Amino acid sequence: MTHIVRPASFLLFLLLAGCGGEYVEPVDHAQQVKRDVAPIVANDPRGVWLAIYPSQCSTADAWRKDWVNAHDGAHYHPFGRQEMPILIEYCSKRGISVLDSTTQDVDGMRCAACTCPANYILFLLVSEADAMAVAEFGGSPRRPGE
């Protein structure tokens, strides 16, 4: 009987221990960016720098899907610095003016899943008015080199 009671008691303990936590409201990425935009603007008088962390897979990101659709389903191959003109064109189609752009390589170990980030970051400088639109497809306030 004790061989059943001990595991059952342990499972009950785990269940009760996990129920005492406080509920945390999910973060709305666009709202977070809206709160974070003001300090970034002060660092660059031209606008807001936003970092975009592309995934490793060719069609997991919005600008890549757009490129594939515009090229009749062709395999997406531009990565890294070659990807920037495609991202800028994607922004332009959505009425977003890109004032400046750059890429930054990221060192370190990466996973191989499609949802994992690539080994580089794309940075766009846009107006404060356009920052929220970039946030909708993954941009978050960050200056290059930080």
Written description of the protein model:
The chain has 146 residues and is an alpha+beta fold. It has one domain (26-141). 41% of the residues lie in helices and 15% in strands. The chain contains 5 helices and 4 strands. The chain has helices at 2-19, 29-43, 62-70, 84-93, 128-135; strands spanning 48-52, 98-105, 120-126, 140-141. It has a 4-stranded antiparallel β-sheet. The longest helix is centred in the N-terminal third of the chain and has 18 residues, at 2-19. It is globular and about 35 Å long. The chain starts with a helix and ends in a 5-residue tail after the last strand. Mean pLDDT is 75; it is low at 10-29.
Quick structural overview:
With 146 residues, the protein is of the alpha+beta class.
Can you tag this structure with a few keywords?
146 residues; four-stranded antiparallel sheet
Write the layout of secondary structure elements.
Elements: H1 2-19, H2 29-43, E1 48-52, H3 62-70, H4 84-93, E2 98-105, E3 120-126, H5 128-135, E4 140-141
Antiparallel strand pairs: 1-3, 1-4, 2-3
Helix pairs in contact: 2-5, 3-4
Poorly predicted tracts of residues: 10-29
How far apart the termini lie comes to 60 Å
Percent range of helical residues: 40-55%
> Sheet with the most strands?
4 strands, antiparallel
Structural class: alpha+beta
Indicate the overall shape: globular
> What's the SSE pattern?
HHEHHEEHE
In total, how many domains does the architecture comprise? 1
The radius of gyration over CA amounts to 21 Å
Percentage of residues in strands: 15-25%
Number of helices: 5
The number of E-state strands comes to 4
Mean pLDDT across all amino acids: 75
Order of strands in the sheet with most strands: 2-3-1-4
